[in-house]
Amino acid sequence: MSNQDLKLQPRQSRFVLEGIVLQIICESGRPKVLWLATAQGEYEIKVSRCACYGLTQWPQPGDGLQVTGERKYKPEKDKLKFKADGLYPIPAASLPTMQPTTPSSGCPAAKAKILVCQGSDCRARGARAVQQKLEQTLDDRGLTNQVTVKSTGCMHCCKKGPVVVFMPDKNRYQQVTPTQIPTLVSENIMSEEIKPETCSTYSR
């Protein structure tokens, strides 16, 4: 069933999808969001707490998985939202048309967004220059079509600005300077494992 067909369904209904796990993001020791490759395409699915009950181990990229849950169509955004309430491992071999795909080297692992606080205190500490350096770095690396940079209001870390948050992992960096931006982009957006130099970071 195509995404267009799904949009014609009731605005809230049940779904069952089978495919290969592409990526999983965990928070507080459990899966929070997963990406599933199916015969119909790739889906981003939020994982409810109850979906994890009964699992002896968390799914890993490359595993076969049946996912059940609720889907909602939001007409104002013209977008379907999926939330899983059941995760059921299945043999990947039973999905012969499913091939796990991994991002090519140097490409973002998932759709990314970078939030830059532009509250008055952060601006006074150089947030505009930080955002300009972010945009320049993404442009230099050919990532402007895959990554969005967005200004936000105050993030309530006024004495530790500028503050930058990399989504979807919610990695937050404080007292960021323009010279640190290339390293942060490499660590959070690119697939290379490069450690940040002097920024302090914690998960939101």
TrEMBL record:
Molecular function in Gene Ontology: iron-sulfur cluster binding; metal ion binding
Sorted UniProt keywords: Iron, Iron-sulfur, Metal-binding
Keyword Iron-sulfur: yes
Tagged with keyword Iron-sulfur: yes
Pfam families, A to Z: 2Fe-2S_thioredx
Entry-linked InterPro entries: Thioredoxin-like_sf (IPR036249)
Entry protein name: Uncharacterized protein
Organism from which the protein derives: Cyanothece sp. (strain PCC 7425 / ATCC 29141)
